[in-house]
C-alpha cells in the first residue's frame, strides 16, 4: 500500500545529492524493521535512485543520556534494537549504531548520503534533534510519521480540550490511515560501503553492561523488548483476552489488557498494525473493538496532541489548566490526614494496602493497570504537601519505574490527575473542584484478586 501523503513532510526541499552513496534513515522513534513507513519510504527512494539504504541510531548515556532513562528502559530498548538490526540486515539494509546523540550520528553520516529520512517523535528533546539536523544537514531531508494512526496536524490544528472534542475528528479521518503496509523489496543491498558503528547491539546485555546509567531500577522479566515479542503478545491477546475487553478493561484482575504500551512507547510495533489486527480479529464484538480503538487511537493521540501543542508539557504551571491550578491553590492549605515523603511512596509504605500493591507492581515489574494508575495518581495528590509537589512526585515516579514512562501518554496522564482534559466536579477538601477518586473506586473490581495477582507477578521477578 502507498504511504499516505499526510505522513510525509519535506524539511529540506532540495534535490537528492547525485554523488550520494546511500539513502540514510535515522531510525530513532520507530525501532522496527517491518510496518515502518519511514523505512519503507527510504527503501522506495533508494530503489528509485539506484542506491542502498543505511539505517542509523544514536545511543545516549551518562550525563547526556535520554532524560530520566535508566537500566530498565535501556534493557528493553536494546533488546528491540538487536531484533531490528537483524531484521534490517536480513532485508539488505545496513545498521550503524554509535555512542552519540541521534542528531550527531545523522549529521555525520548524511555527508555521504543522497538524502536523509527521519521518523518522528513529539517530545521536546526529539524536536531539538530534528531542528539540529535540519540546520546542519545540507541534503534533502524527509520526515515520515509512523507513530500515530492519524498525523497530529491532520487530526487537529490546535490543542484539544478533551477526548470528546478530538474523538469526532479522528473518527472521520482514521479509515484511510488504517491500511496495511507491505515490505518493499530492497533492490540494492548495502554491502561494501565500509561503514562502521561503534556498537554491535547483537548482544544487548553486553551493550547495557558497558553503559554509564542509573542501575538502581533494573530490567524486568515480565516484558522482553522487540517487534517479534510485541506481535506474539498481540496475537495471544486477540486469541485469549480480547473477547470481553469492553466489559473487562477496567478490571485489573480480569487480565483483559494487551500490554502493548511498552512496545508502542519504544516504536517496536505500529499502532496501525494493532488497529488492523483489532478490526480483523475473529474474537470479540463491536463493543470490544470500539473500546480498544478508543484507547489505542483517541486517548493515545489526545496525548500526542497535548504534547505537540503544549510548550512545557512536563511543567505543573504549563500543563495543568488555569481553572484546576486555581482551585487546587485555594485548597492547598487544607488539612491532609495522611502525608508521605517521596521515599515512602516509592517504597509503598502507606496506610493503603491496595495503593501499596499497585506501587509494588509498578516498581518491580514496570507496569500498572490503567484503572490503578488513576487511583495511584489521585492519592499522590492527596498525600503530598502541595499540588505542585504532588505533580512533580507523580511524574518522577511515573518516569522512573514505568517501562512506558517518559512519553506523551505519561506526561498527559499525570496532568490529567490534576485536571487536564477534564471539567470541574463537586468541590471537596484538598482537591477543590478537581476530580476526586476515593477508596470506593476499588469496589468496581476484585481488589483482593488484584493484590494476589501482583504478588504472583512480583514473585516471578525473583
Automatic annotation (TrEMBL):
Its cofactor is (6R)-5,10-methylene-5,6,7,8-tetrahydrofolate. GO terms for molecular function: deoxyribodipyrimidine photo-lyase activity. InterPro entries: Crypto/Photolyase_FAD-like_sf, Crypto/Photolyase_N_sf, DNA_photolyase_N, Photolyase_Class-2, Rossmann-like_a/b/a_fold. Keywords: Lyase. This is Deoxyribodipyrimidine photo-lyase. Pfam families: DNA_photolyase. It comes from the Bacteria. Gene3D superfamilies: 1.25.40.80, DNA Cyclobutane Dipyrimidine Photolyase, subunit A, domain 3 (1.10.579.10), HUPs (3.40.50.620). Residues 21-152 form the Photolyase/cryptochrome alpha/beta domain. PROSITE patterns: PHR_CRY_ALPHA_BETA. Its EC number is 4.1.99.3.
Amino acid at each position: 500500500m502507498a504511504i499516505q501523503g499526510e505522513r510525509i513532510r519535506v524539511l529540506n526541499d532540495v534535490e537528492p545529492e547525485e554523488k550520494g552513496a546511500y539513502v540514510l534513515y535515522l531510525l530513532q522513534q520507530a525501532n522496527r524493521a517491518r510496518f515502518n513507513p519511514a523505512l519503507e519510504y527510504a527503501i522506495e527512494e533508494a530503489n528509485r535512485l539506484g542506491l542502498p539504504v543505511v539505517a542509523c541510531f544514536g545511543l545516549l548515556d551518562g550525563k547526556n543520556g535520554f532524560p530520566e532513562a535508566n537500566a530498565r528502559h535501556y534493557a528493553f530498548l536494546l533488546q528491540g534494537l538487536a531484533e531490528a538490526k537483524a531484521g534490517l540486515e536480513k532485508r539488505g539494509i545496513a545498521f550503524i549504531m554509535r555512542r552519540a546523540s541521534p542528531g550527531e550520528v545523522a549529521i555525520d553520516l548524511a555527508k555521504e548520503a543522497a538524502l536523509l529520512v527521519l521518523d518522528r517523535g513529539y517530545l521536546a528533546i526529539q524536536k531539538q534533534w530534528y531542528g539540529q539536523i535540519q540546520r546542519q544537514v545540507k541534503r534533502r531531508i524527509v520526515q515520515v510519521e509512523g507513530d500515530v494512526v492519524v498525523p497530529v496536524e491532520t487530526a487537529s490544528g490546535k490543542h484539544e480540550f478533551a477526548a470528546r472534542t478530538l474523538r469526532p475528528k479522528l473518527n472521520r479521518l482514521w479509515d484511510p490511515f488504517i491500511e496495511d503496509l507491505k515490505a518493499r523489496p530492497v533492490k540494492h543491498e548495502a554491502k561494501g560501503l565500509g561503514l562502521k558503528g561503534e556498537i554491535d547491539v547483537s548482544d544487548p546485555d553486553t551493550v547495557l553492561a558497558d553503559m554509564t546509567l542509573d542501575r538502581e531500577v533494573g530490567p524486568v522479566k515480565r516484558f522482553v523488548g522487540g517487534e517479534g515479542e510485541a506481535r506474539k503478545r498481540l496475537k495471544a491477546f486477540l486469541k485469549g483476552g480480547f473477547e470481553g475487553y469492553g466489559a473487562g478493561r477496567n478490571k485489573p484482575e480480569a487480565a483483559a489488557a494487551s500490554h502493548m504500551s511498552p512496545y508502542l512507547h519504544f516504536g517496536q510495533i505500529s499502532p496501525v498494525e494493532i488497529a488492523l489486527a483489532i478490526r480483523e480479529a475473529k474474537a470479540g464484538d463491536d463493543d470490544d473493538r470500539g473500546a480498544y480503538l478508543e484507547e489505542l487511537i483517541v486517548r493515545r493521540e489526545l496525548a500526542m496532541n497535548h504534547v505537540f501543542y503544549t510548550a512545557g508539557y512536563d511543567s505543573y504551571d504549563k500543563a495543568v489548566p488555569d481553572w484546576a491550578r486555581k482551585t487546587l491553590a485555594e485548597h492547598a492549605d487544607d488539612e491532609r490526614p495522611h502525608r508521605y515523603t517521596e521515599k515512602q511512596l516509592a517504597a509503598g509504605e502507606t496506610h493503603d494496602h491496595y495503593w501499596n500493591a499497585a506501587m509494588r507492581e509498578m516498581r518491580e515489574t514496570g507496569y500498572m493497570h490503567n484503572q490503578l494508575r488513576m487511583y495511584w495518581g489521585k492519592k499522590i495528590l492527596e498525600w503530598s504537601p502541595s499540588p505542585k509537589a504532588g505533580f512533580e512526585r507523580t511524574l518522577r515516579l511515573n518516569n522512573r519505574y514505568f517501562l512506558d514512562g517518559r512519553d506523551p501518554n505519561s506526561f498527559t496522564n499525570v496532568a490529567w490527575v490534576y485536571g487536564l482534559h477534564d471539567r470541574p466536579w463537586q468541590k471537596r477538601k484538598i482537591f477543590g473542584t478537581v476530580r476526586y477518586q476515593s477508596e470506593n473506586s476499588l469496589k468496581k473490581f476484585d481488589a483482593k484478586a488484584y493484590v494476589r495477582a501482583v504478588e504472583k507477578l512480583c514473585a516471578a521477578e525473583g
